[in-house]
Amino acid sequence: MRLLLLSLAVSGVCFAIGCDKGPTMATVTGNVTFDGKPIPDGDITFSDPENKVAPDGGKIKNGVYTMSVRPGKKKVDIRASKLEKLPAGQKGAMGETEMPVDYIPGKYNQKSELTADVATGANKFDFTLTP
Amino acid sequence: MPIIRPNHRGFTLIELLVVIAIIAILIGLLLPAVQKVREASARATCSNNIKQVALGLHAHHDVYLLFPMGQQVTLGTNNPTNGNNRQCWEQPLLPYIEQGPLYAQIQASQPTVLTFSITGVDSKIKSLMCPSDPNAGKNVTVPGNAQGFHGNYVLCAGSTLFGDSGATGGIALNGMFYCLSKTKMGDVTDGTSNTLMGSEVLIAQDTTTHDLRGRYNNTWQGNTLFSTLYPPNTTVGDRSDYCNTIPKAPCQGLGGTSTVQSARSMHTGGVNAVMADGSVRFVRDGVTLSTWQNAGTRAGGEVAANDL
After folding, report:
1. Which residue of B has its CA nearest to A14?
2. Distance set, CA B181 to CA B54, B167, B178, B264 (Å)
3. What is the ipTM score, two decimals?
4. What average pLDDT does the segment A40-59 reach?
5. What residues of chain A lie within 8 A of the CB of B144, using their CB?
6. Residue B132 belongs to domain spanning
7. Nearest CA of chain B to the CA of A56: how many Å?
8. R_g of chain A computed on alpha carbons
9. Are B156 and B197 in contact (CB under 8 A)?
């Protein structure tokens, strides 16, 4: 009886927490500045340059990001937007007078030159972007 | 005089405790199982719906000898370029999923200039809703509450960002459905069993701004398309002019050439996807990235992988 209860309890705990493991993740943190100022609201992606390992994405808030990344050599994309006033007299489809504009140059996202070698465990990468 | 003892005995405390313990364990085992069954049935409904979408698209192809346009205006375009007002593939699909009257209603009030008061677009279309998504059936929007119903199903634009083709973005992408696409069955040279036709996305409620994902009325940012650039349920956020980050569906409010939307669901560990031949598969989040990307292209010439 005791054995039965024990095995039931163990299998129950196993069901509850899940006994399979995902990929080993490294934690990455850092500061991102553009033109000397921290990026208030942005998007950061660590992707495999050979496109074999799945990419990982995170958010930049007030110039700081913290995220989980699959370890390895990575290409880093950074994107951020801000609302910009439309030219006088022009309006968006919903009557908006301002629209979001991507202000980070292509050398940091579409054709990114940023790289990072992410090791298992904790990492810190700061990025200083210039216009 | 003999003593008459009552011939029944009670339970001891230990026996009672053991019984209670067993019942507790059974409840502990069964309750999560009930939840799993519920999700499994929602997933089955969801995959049936996506199959209906595929069959509807095939029926459209039978009539017009081509699939409907992924989106009827180019990416981020304000003005109708072809007489249609920011529609996507869902409107022409409606007659083929038994929503003919709704289609007639929408077309009848389709304006020639860009406005959003289109009769009927608030109607919830049950076969375009995935019951696993708690936000499925969203038709309340800000501002002005005029954006209409949002569906969970999206069609495959290929394996690149939507804006990859430049300023007049969204055209000539490498999938089956993109802006102004006129794909025929014969254009799918990778093989209809090897090419992704559709999948699903998660819908986010409008908060301070509206969230475009899944919206079929006033579609202009590829809202009803997806790309296989990033794997299913990726942590890399979607990008579109207007969106709100929610758990499992992060987003950055920027469009232009960066615009992209990835397949997402609330199912455990993957998304439902339908191939161009109409077969439905459950694709794992951990699918090999190249397999997923190659499946997104209609004529990439890749050797079909067997691990999708």
Report:
1. B29
2. 17, 17, 5, 23
3. 0.79
4. 91
5. 94
6. 13-296
7. 6
8. 22
9. yes
Could you tell me if residue A83 is inside a domain?
A: yes
Q: In this structure, what token pair is assigned to residue B180?
A: 């102004």
Q: How far apart are CA B53 and CA B124, in angstroms?
A: 15
Which candidate from B144, B230, B250 shows the least CB-CB separation from A59?
B250
Residue A116 lies inside a defined structural domain of this protein: yes
Q: Which residues of A touch B32 (CB under 8 A)?
A: 15-16
Please answer whether residues B194 and B296 qualify as being in contact, where contact means their C-beta atoms are separated by less than 8 angstroms.
no
Question: How many domains are contained in chain A?
Answer: 1
Positive or negative, the CA dihedral B281, B222, B212, B126 is negative
Nearest CA in chain B to A81: B254
- Which CATH number belongs to the domain containing residue A48 in this structure? 2.60.40.10
Among chain A residues, the shortest Cα distance to B242 is held by A100
Q: Consecutive 10-residue runs of chain B (308 residues): their mean pLDDT?
A: 64 93 92 86 95 96 95 74 74 94 87 69 92 92 80 94 70 90 93 94 88 89 93 92 88 81 93 95 92 93 82
Say yes or no to pLDDT of A33 above 90. Answer: yes
Domain that holds residue A83: 23-129
Whether residue B198 contacts residue B275, with contact meaning beta carbons closer than 8 Å, is answered with no
Nearest Cα of chain A lies from the Cα of B211 at a distance, in angstroms, of 13
pTM (2 decimals)? 0.84
Number of compact structural domains in chain B: 1
Distance from CA of A30 to the nearest CA of B (A): 17
Interface contact flag, A100 B235, Cβ < 8 Å: no
- pLDDT score of B204: 93
CB contact under 8 A, B78 and A12: no
Q: Is the dihedral of CA B301, B303, B306, B308 positive or negative?
A: negative
Residue pLDDT, tens place only, A82-126: 888 877 777 666 667 777 778 888 889 888 889 999 999 999 999
Q: How far is it, in rounded angstroms, from Cα A75 to Cα A97?
A: 36
* Interface contact flag, B29 A68, Cβ < 8 Å: no
3-state DSSP helix/strand/coil percent for chain A, to nearest 5? Answer: 15, 45, 40
- pLDDT for B234-286, tens place per residue? 999 999 888 888 989 998 877 777 889 999 999 989 999 999 999 999 999 99
Query: How, if at all, do strands A115-118 and A72-85 pair?
Result: antiparallel
Closest-CA residue of chain A to B145: A94
Burial of B25 (0-12, 13-18, 19+ CB in 10 A): middle
**In chain A, what residues touch B250 (CB-CB under 8 Å)?**
57, 59
